[in-house]
Structure formats: C-alpha cells, structure tokens
Amino acid sequence: MSCKFPEHFLWGGAVAANQVEGAYLEDGKGLSTSDLQPQGIFGALTPRVAGDSGIKDVAIDFYHRYPEDIALFAEMGFKCLRTSIAWSRIFPQGDEEAPNEAGLAFYDRVFDEMAKYGIQPLITLSHYEMPYGLTQKYGGWGSRKTIEFFERYARTVFERYKHKVKHWLTFNEINMSLHAPFTGVGLPEESSKSDIYQAIHHQLVASAKAVKACHEIVQGGKIGNMLLGGILYPLTCKPEDLLETQRQNRDWLFFGDVQARGAYPSYMTRFFRENDIQVTITPEDKQALRETIDFISFSYYMSGCVTTDEAQNNTARANILNMVPNPHLASSEWGWQIDPIGLRYLLNVLYDRYQKPLFIVENGLGAKDSIEADGSINDDYRINYLNDHLVQVAEAIDDGVEVMGYTSWGPIDLVSASKAEMSKRYGFIYVDRDDAGNGTLERRRKKSFYWYRDVIQSNGNSLKKR
Fold this sequence. Notes:
The protein has 466 residues and is an alpha/beta fold. The chain is built from 15 helices and 12 strands. Helix 8 packs across helix 11. The termini are close together. Its EC number is 3.2.1.-.
C-alpha cells in the first residue's frame, strides 16, 4: 500500500538565520546572543573582541547566496521553507524605537525570491537568538520590559510582511530554556529555577501577545508555537517509572498546554510549590495568555527512556537531554537514538491532547558525509532515516491526526546548533566548508536530493514501507 498524504501537504525544509546566514554584522545588524556562542548553544558565553571570528559569522553565507539556495529548494519541489528572522537585524540592540530598514529589506528580498517559485514561507520570530543588547541592559527575558520589545518587533515584521508571509511561529523549541537558559531566555547558566521560570513566563506572555498581533494584522495568517518534541517512554513497567515518565513529559508539554489552552495547567502549581519556585503572574498576564495559537509545531529527532533507577540515570548525564538509552533502538554517530515509530506516537499524543493541526518543522539525521571519487555523495543512511520517519507520519495521518506539513531539518548543510559543527551534516545539499571554516562554500546535490524530490513530486507515494 502507498503512503497517503493530504493534497495540499506542505513539503519542505527548515533552517535558522543564525545557522545559515552569516553576515553577522552586515547592513546594521547588531550582535545576537548566538554570536556570543561560537561553540554552540551549550558552549560557554564568549565576549566578542575586534578581529576574532567564529564559524557562524559566515555560516554557509545564505545572506549572499539565498537566490542559489532557494533555486535548489525549488528544484526539489519545496512547497514550504521554514526559516527565521534574525531579531537583531531588525532591532540591532533590541530596544530601538524604529527598525533597521536594511534588515527589513533583506527579508523582503528573501520572501520575494521564494514567491518566484511558489514556496510558502514559515517564519520563526526568535530561533535560539535575541539581541545581545537586551541581555546586557535588561537581563534578557528576566525583565518584563523584554515583552514590550518583542511585541514591537513582532508587530513590525507582521506589518511589513503581512502580504508575503501567512505562516508564523513564535519561539523555536521554547522548552529548551530549561536545558540552556542563555540560549533560550538570555539568563546565565547558573540561574535559579525561579529566575528561569519567571523568564519563561515572560516569554509565554510575549508569545501570546505576538499571537494576538498576528491575528489582528495578518489577514488569513496562522501562527503556531514550537516545541522540542522530546517524548519519553518508561524504561520498565514499574508504576514508579510510569509516574516519573509522566512527570518528565509534562516538563515540556507544559509549554504546549499554556500556549494551546490559554492558562497554566494545575500540575504546575504543585511543581512550583514542591520545588520552591516563585513566579509572579499578574491578572493582566492571565488575560494575555488566553490568546492561543492556531497550530502546534515541533521538532522530533529521538525519543528517550525514564527510570527511577539512579545508577542507570547516572550513565545518561552526558546526553543532550539526559535521556536514558532505549535498549531496543540503534543510534546515530552522535548518539541520538533512531525511533521512527516514536514520531507516530508523538503525533498521536499531541493531537489527542490539543486537537489542533500539527506541523513537523524539524526532523533529520546528522551524519558525516563523504564525497566519492566521481563527486557523488551516497547518503543512503539519511534516505533510510527520513523514509522510515515519513512512513510513520503517513500512519499517523491514517490514525486521524491532522498534519499540515513536514519540513526536514537542514535541507542544506549548515552550522549545527548544539556544537557549531559543519561536520554534522543534515542536508540534501552538500556545502563545502569544514569545522575550521575552510572551504569554497560550493553547493553539491547529494543522493538524498533526488530522493526527496521524488517524495514531494509523488506526494509521498514513492516512500517505501520496510
């Protein structure tokens, strides 16, 4: 049987400004928090000094090469491209009254280029970066003032691009703030839980205000949230493992609950009390949060397990999310477990919980690619990974889940978020650049390029159930 996808399914890919654009101070752009993390989102904060350089300063030079890259995406048949606006291109310090016209004009050109090929933009307002000036002057999202600055930014870009962009997202993987506070909310890594959750609260209020602004300004526009879909299974059938799994899944589902349901869930009251977490929530905040998102978007790369066995937990401390490995799954070169069925499970969990359309906006395999003597790049491992995940998306759709689209992470090689590496490649398009920043930046089609083109052209019918 062939895989069935909706007629207007949005096939495409996803990138982020700070991982592809480069031109980190060009045309009036200010420093972003990402510019201060040359070793990735889990790396130390490194102040910039004159003459220094980081791999993200150039990245893959999408800022100057976007026409070539968008043409390649169009060759694959993309219906949709997810990218982000670099907030510090629009408001270099974050608190200016008036936006930077050169920054606005750049995204006009990008969206016009996409329109030439009929590619719909899906735009994230803040993808792992914010103006560094806001962290210096106000303490990032620790300050209520940042809500005002974000709303100004959101309204500015909604007004500017309301005829060009109809699909928006607020914050990328908003729940990652629990694991990387500087990346997520501009706070020091050693911040208290109260400080982190207060900053997260400000971000949730700002997200709701952006949703309201989008609904007011963008006619026919839809705006969603974005979660890191870190679904967890109990390692055993011990009731204690099951209960702890529920608790840990709620750590990230909480962000979806607030944004999709318009209020804090009751289980957070107990969590705050038992962990001595103090969060100031005003009546005005509660009113603002009632403006809910139109759809749920999320990333999915892997699942993990939960156990109450401390000895096994200690072996998982080095993992990106402290996940206990699943003994039934294989892993990627970077230790990320490969679980296609987990994507079907997650889609059903989210749809059962929220009854809102879902959008898979990140999914992919990071791997080291090699160029053969004839110039080809035979990334069958990537094809197999994506094929098996997309087959499970089709199964979820057959389950009755409403899925709007699928944008694979990194359709073109880019600087990885976690450790700022080029060697961890996700793309259908190879970019000639290494971890030290050497290379010509030449683009080259991989085997997966032609595979994904066939998937899109057939609307999923070419996928193989294995």
